[in-house]
Structures are given as C-alpha cells and as structure tokens.
C-alpha cells in the first residue's frame, strides 16, 4: 500500500485554508462600497482628482437609488475646503437613511468626523477617545437663510480671542455675513431644491492660523463673472474674458461688481471680503470655484477637474493668542 504523500497533504490543507479565507472576505464585501483615498482636499492637486472622482461615484449611485457604503478607513488628513465640500455632497444625498460606512483608522479623523456629523450619517458611534485640541477648535454651521443661530456665538467668541481689535473683528464678521448673503441671494437658481451654505471655522495652533470658510455648491464664479464693464474699461469685456482660465476669471471677479445677470451678483460682497486682507494684519483671502483658485498671497492656480459652486476662505494669523478648547465631539 502506497504511503500518503505528506507534502501533497500539506499543500491541500493550505489550499483549503486559502479558499475558506477568501470566502470569508467575500462574505464581508459590502454592496455599493466606495473607498476614499488618504487625503480629502480640493486644494492639493493630486488628491483633488481622487477626491472628486470618489464624489462622482457617490452621486451616480445615489441618482440610481443604489445602496452606498462609504469606506473612510485610509483617510489620514482632512483639509477644511475638502471637508466642507464633502459635507455638501453628503447633505444632498437622496438616500441618507440607507447610507452606511466605515470610519478612519486615525483618531484625529474619527474625532473630526464625529464632531461634523459624518459618523451619524454613516451609522457609526460618536468618537469617545482622548481629547484632541485641533478638533476641539473646529466649528461648522449650515443653513439656507441669513439666520446663523445661537451656534454662531461660539465662532464669535473665538474670533474675539483671535482679533482683539474691534475694527478688525467688525471687518471679518461683515465679510462672513456678505459671503453668506451672496450664497442666499445669488448662488443658486430660483427653482433649485438645494440652496444651503456651509460655514466652517477652525484653528490650527501648530500652524498659527485660523481658517474661516463659506461654501456653496451652486453657480460658479467663472459663469457669473462681471460683464457690465464698459463704463470702467476702455476695452470690450468680451476681449477681456476671451482665453482666460478659471483662476484669472476669479481674480477679475474679485475686482468688479456687476454680473452676467446684470445684477449686483457674485462680486457684490468682494469689497467686504477683500477688506479683510487690507484691515487684518497677515490675512490671506482664498477663493476656489469651478476649475480655478485664487489667493491674495499665493496667486493663481488651475485644476483639471471642476467643482460645484464657490468656496471663499480667510486665513488669519493667531499672533500667539491664548486659546480655550471646548472639549466636545458629539
């Protein structure tokens, strides 16, 4: 009688084990799984493309009324302009009740997702780990009217700490109000079902910076740039705009008031928005719209992929102010 081949038996055992493991993996495969890359950002070139491709996949499945499982496992870095855009897109979903997901492996991202309400959307529990100072200083509001509510008081308190000068505080708060007013009055078509703005506030002590962002996902600045300039310019406005990329059109829009609708439109609040740069020491104004970006410090930048709407932001130096954390994440 032939003896059993021990090597063959071992190979068979390994093969059986592999099959069982693969079967287990398949049984945990979620329908509609969409995976996010490591960085959520609209400003960083390579990461922007990946992020917007992920958003496109989410929108396609939602429009088709298909299930969604959002996997944030690999997300390591959240940048404010990207997070606020993500919040818009999740808020617009038709089937939020059926939305599921997995959170990040990183505590900082978990805490931020919990604070911003993303954990609740993907049916994950609130973050209950250690206190993380940078997350403690993130605030986010949204609405479709000029009423900012009591929650805005938290932001006002932080602004008062950052800007002890009364004039500087007034200029910044007026710019925020104008940016929100522009969204309410002009960013969306009259019959649009979604007309929200998001206001985002964060303090990064390590970078010695406060960033305030107002965002919408309506019309873009390059679509609503000024056209009634004949009284101010000696050249035809068509000649001015021809051949311009989006970043250049954004730059033009920051300097003129009348829009393509022949109303005081997207540029209406730019006087107030830009006044922050001139009246607050070290301030930087940032605008992203469609495929372009413009910064009062860094200048122009253009991208391959377009975004919806417009994001206006102000970077304010902290100047070594003493900060008080709120220590809440839910």
Secondary structure: elements and pairs:
Elements: H1 6-27, E1 33-35, E2 39-40, H2 45-63, E3 69-71, E4 77-78, H3 80-91, E5 100-102, H4 107-116, H5 118-121, H6 133-136, E6 138-143, H7 152-162, H8 166-187, E7 197-204, E8 209-215, H9 237-241, H10 246-253, H11 270-279, E9 284-289, E10 292-295, E11 299-302, E12 310-317
Parallel strand pairs: 1-3, 2-4, 3-5
Antiparallel strand pairs: 6-7, 7-8, 8-12, 9-10, 9-12, 10-11
Structure description:
This protein is an alpha/beta fold and 330 residues long. It has 2 domains: 33-121, no CATH class; 133-317, Histidine kinase-like ATPase, C-terminal domain (Heat Shock Protein 90), CATH 3.30.565.10. Helices cover 38% and strands 17% of the residues. It has 11 helices and 12 strands. The strands form 3 sheets. A 7-stranded antiparallel β-sheet has the order 6-7-8-12-9-10-11, with helices on both faces. A 3-stranded parallel β-sheet has the order 1-3-5, covered by helices on one side. A hairpin with a 3-residue loop joins strand 10 (292-295) and strand 11 (299-302). Helix 8 (166-187) runs antiparallel to helix 11. The protein is globular. 35% of the residues are buried. The model is unreliable at 23-27, 227-231, 258-267 and 323-330 (pLDDT under 50). It comes from Acinetobacter stercoris. This is ATP-binding protein.
């Amino acid at each position: 009688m032939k003896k059993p081949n021990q090597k063959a038996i071992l190979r068979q055992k390994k093969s059986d084990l592999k099959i069982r493991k693969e079967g287990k993996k398949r049984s945990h495969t979620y329908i509609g799984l969409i995976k996010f890359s490591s960085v959520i950002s609209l400003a960083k070139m390579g990461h922007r493309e990946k992020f917007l491709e992920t958003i496109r996949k989410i929108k396609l499945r939602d429009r088709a009324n298909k299930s969604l499982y959002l996997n944030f496992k690999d997300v390591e870095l959240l940048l404010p302009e990207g997070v606020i855009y993500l919040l818009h897109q999740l808020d617009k979903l038709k089937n939020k009740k059926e939305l599921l997901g997995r959170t990040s492996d990183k505590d900082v991202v978990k805490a931020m997702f919990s604070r911003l309400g993303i954990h609740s959307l993907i049916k994950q529990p609130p973050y209950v780990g250690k206190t993380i100072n940078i997350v403690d200083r993130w605030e986010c509001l949204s609405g479709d009217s000029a009423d900012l509510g009591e929650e805005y008081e938290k932001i006002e308190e932080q602004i008062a700490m950052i800007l002890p000068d009364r004039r500087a505080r007034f200029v910044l708060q007026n710019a925020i109000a104008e940016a929100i007013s522009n969204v309410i009055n002009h960013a969306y078509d009259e019959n649009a079902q979604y007309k929200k703005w998001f206001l985002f506030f964060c303090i990064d002590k390590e970078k010695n910076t406060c960033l305030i962002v107002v965002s919408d996902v309506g019309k873009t600045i390059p679509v609503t740039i000024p056209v009634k300039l004949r009284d101010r310019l000696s050249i035809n406005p068509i000649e001015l705009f021809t051949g311009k990329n989006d970043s250049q059109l954004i730059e033009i829009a920051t300097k003129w008031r009348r829009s393509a609708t022949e109303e005081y439109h997207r540029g209406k609040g730019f006087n107030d928005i830009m006044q922050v740069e001139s009246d607050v020491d070290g301030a930087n104004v940032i605008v992203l719209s469609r495929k372009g970006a413009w910064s009062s410090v860094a200048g122009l930048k253009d991208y391959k992929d377009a975004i919806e709407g417009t994001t206006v932001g102000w970077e304010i130096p902290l100047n070594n102010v003493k900060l008080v954390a709120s220590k809440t994440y839910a």
